[in-house]
Design brief:
239 residues; alpha/beta; TIM Barrel; eight-stranded parallel β-barrel; 17% strand; binds glyceraldehyde-3-phosphate; lyase; schiff base; EC 4.2.3.153; lyase activity; (5-formylfuran-3-yl)methyl phosphate synthase
């Protein structure tokens, strides 16, 4: 199955609080991503806060889509499955799971543990561009019934996505994911100037946090910066 190729990528915006979530809903984003940046690349919200966020999103008419990260965990089957189940139980429709550097021989066992769950919940695999990701693993996620796959960076102090992987490699990643019918995203300290070269690869979405904040990704979301990224992605202003 080949996935739909979007004319322009959508905007995934990571938000750290319910207030930021309301701001992002007002500005308008395609995927509202519930993440706690002060707890790592894939820092998780507390379950009760996720339940409240789902209620806020539904009350707003459930625009676009809603994702949440499960936290930064090692590649351990039970641990990842438990974290994914805990997140999905809150009602969040898209659950993002990081596949961190480590014992890659553990990947088959992790996917076996997640496969039954992936049939009930839309799971997004997050690979890290700064950890020499094995892009040949993309078909394995599709075979495990994942809904999507994205690239991000784990070490936010070590440069953005394009500092770690050349455009040609990113193009191969997007094409491989699309060929498997997976929702495909790119992220990792992206700046407004990265939008044009990455949009040309036609992923389904580009993900942002740091560029949306005045003083780094753990500071507050700035609605003006968010609107500028939204408008650049939509082609209303040039990068
Ligand atoms: O999922 C997207 C990330 O939250 C991106 O965060 P970042 O732009 O700070 O790397």
């Amino acid at each position: 199955m080949t996935a739909h190729v979007p004319a322009r990528p959508g905007l995934l915006a990571s938000v750290a609080t319910l207030d930021e979530m309301r701001t992002a809903l007002a500005v308008g984003v395609d995927i509202l991503d519930l993440k706690n940046p002060s707890e790592g690349a894939l820092g998780a919200w507390a379950p009760q806060a996720l339940v409240e966020a789902v209620a806020v999103w539904r009350a707003a008419g459930a625009p676009g889509n809603l994702s949440a990260t499960v936290g930064d965990h090692p590649l351990e089957p039970d641990l990842l499955r438990t974290a994914a189940e805990r997140t999905a139980a809150t009602g969040v429709p898209l659950v993002k799971i990081g596949f961190a550097l480590g014992d890659t021989t553990a990947l088959p066992a992790v996917l076996d543990a997640l496969r039954p769950f992936a049939r009930e919940t839309r799971l997004i695999a997050v690979l890290f561009a700064d950890q020499a990701p094995d892009l040949a693993a993309v078909p394995l996620f599709a075979a495990a019934d994942f809904h999507g796959v994205m690239l991000d960076t784990a070490d936010k102090a070590a440069g953005g996505l394009l500092a770690h992987l050349p455009v040609e490699t990113l193009a191969r990643f997007v094409a491989a994911a699309r060929a498997e019918g997976l929702l495909t995203g790119l992220a990792g300290s992206l700046k407004v100037a990265d939008i044009a070269p990455l949009a040309a690869l036609r992923p389904h979405y580009l993900g942002f946090r740091g560029a949306l904040c005045a003083e780094g990704r753990t500071s507050a979301l700035d609605p003006l910066r968010l609107a500028a990224v939204r408008d650049t992605l939509a082609g209303r202003i040039l990068a």
